[in-house]
Specification:
- With 399 residues, this protein is α/β, with parallel strands linked by helices.
- The protein folds into 2 domains: 275 residues, tm_1862 like domain (pyruvate-formate lyase- activating enzyme, Alpha-Beta Horseshoe), CATH 3.80.30.20; 77 residues, Orthogonal Bundle (Arc Repressor Mutant, subunit A), CATH 1.10.10.
- Helices cover 39% and strands 19% of the residues.
- The protein is built from 16 helices and 15 strands.
- A 9-stranded mixed sheet has the order 7-8-6-5-4-3-2-1-9, with helices on both faces. The chain has a 3-stranded antiparallel sheet with strand order 10-11-12, with no helix packed on it.
- β5, α7 and β6 form a beta-alpha-beta unit.
- α1 runs parallel beside α2, α1 packs across α12 and α13 packs antiparallel against α16.
- Bound molecules: iron/sulfur cluster.
- The site of iron/sulfur cluster has 11 residues, from loops.
């Protein structure tokens, strides 16, 4: 189940906390589109013919392009890459909606998942009308908070009112497969407001909710403003309290299927789940990463260099071959974050008896401290252990 990720590197303004590669100027949008189409051609053999079941447009802000331009990109992908037959044209949303009434036997066995990250201020009536003529069938909305003071603190370009309007407008247009992002641990976000954010998401019938702990990444505006004393420091205790309050989502019927992701049953992100399960993916656009099972590569994080090199038919990525230790570390780190857990039999099969023994011995102290639990050879983080995910995983790494 391979996937394709497309990184659209433009934003309206830079959010204070952001360390994704994006630029706040939009003047290179046409040149980027041209370069991206060239990269789609250049990478046509990367996935070695594996059928592609998911496509994800992230960024940056993909919704700064028109639906027609985004559909053009999907059209180029469908011509040059082995998209699953379910993804092949014609498969617009209008067709999906028509098929709602059909029996499951008449619908495609494995529905495609084509996601676009979208910012609330881009969800105009005209945008939604255009979207209905594209193949996007899952929308991930960057809400972050339903309170204005938090959005201001984060330097988001939209308001809380716009976020609610955007969700309702998309739902009225027939989009049910919606995800929203929320951020906790913001100094302006009280415990009550965090709970109200979660309640608002549930009452809006959002089937997928991603929740991220606010972190201060080096060299971001947030880092600089905090160091200058212009913004309040982030409290770790506050973030832990917010994390614990997400129990509310479980009580409301959501699966906590990955440390930062909750979904109603059946609404998990197929694209991201495939990352966590070690499936192969191709990343296009500046700073995008690709993985084919044996090596990882990442495109240059520079828009000018990406456009110049890719347009000239040259590649602009660095690559590393993954050692068995690196692949083991990655498996432990990603699998422990999910509800599917870390399978010790897989460690034995893929990495051998010595690594299996190392894993079991290293896990033992965490089982005694009740940060890990084991069931039929599968290891899971306990609720308490989830507060120390990185520390536990790194103690299980081969160095
Ligand atoms: S919209 Fe997203 S990618 Fe753009 S600056 Fe804000 S957080 Fe970063």
């Amino acid at each position: 189940m391979a996937g394709i990720y497309i990184h659209i590197p433009f934003c309206r303004c830079k959010c204070h906390y952001c360390n994704f590669f994006s630029v706040a100027s939009r003047k290179h949008k046409p040149a980027f589109l041209h370069a991206l189409k060239k990269e789609i051609e250049l990478t046509r053999d990367y996935l070695a013919g594996q059928p592609v079941h998911t496509v994800y447009f992230g960024g940056g802000t993909p919704s700064l392009y028109t639906p027609g331009e985004l559909q053009e990109i999907l059209g180029s992908l469908a011509t040059l890459h082995p998209l699953s037959s379910a993804l092949r044209p014609p498969y617009p949303l209008t067709l999906l909606l028509k098929e709602k009434g059909k029996s499951s036997a008449q619908r495609p066995a494995s529905p495609p998942e084509i996601t676009m990250e979208i910012n609330p201020d881009d969800v105009t009536e005209a945008f939604v009308a255009g979207l209905r003529n594209t193949w996007f069938n899952r929308l991930s909305i960057g809400v972050q908070s339903f309170f204005e003071e938090d959005l201001k603190w984060l330097n988001r370009s939209h308001s809380a009112v716009q976020a609610i309007k955007a969700i309702k407008r998309l739902q009225e247009a027939g989009y049910t497969n919606i995800s929203i992002d929320l951020i906790y641990g913001i100094p302006t976000l009280t415990d009550d407001h965090w709970e109200q954010n979660l309640e608002q998401a549930v009452s809006l019938k959002i089937p997928h909710i991603s929740t991220y702990s606010l972190t201060v990444e080096p060299h971001t505006a947030l880092d600089i403003l905090i160091n200058k004393g212009k913004l309040e420091k982030i409290s770790e205790e506050g973030s832990i309290r917010h994390f614990k309050r997400m129990q509310y989502l479980r009580e409301a019927g959501y699966l906590h299927y990955e440390i930062s992701n909750f979904s109603l049953p059946g609404s998990e992100s197929k694209h991201n789940s495939n990352y966590w399960k070690g499936e192969h993916y191709l990343g296009l656009g500046p700073s995008a990463h690709s993985f084919n099972g044996v090596s990882r590569q990442w495109n240059v994080a520079s828009l000018n260099e990406y456009i110049a090199k890719t347009s000239a038919g040259e590649s602009c990525f660095e690559m590393e071959q993954l050692t068995p230790d690196q692949r083991y570390n990655e498996y432990v780190m990603t699998s422990l974050r999910t509800m599917w857990g870390c399978d010790s039999q897989k460690i034995m099969d893929d990495f051998g008896y010595t690594v299996y023994g190392f894993f079991k011995n290293s896990a033992l102290p965490f089982i005694e401290k009740e940060l890990l639990r084991e069931d039929k050879g599968i290891y899971y983080l306990t609720d308490e252990g989830q507060l120390f995910t990185d520390q536990v995983s790194s103690e299980l790494f081969m160095v």
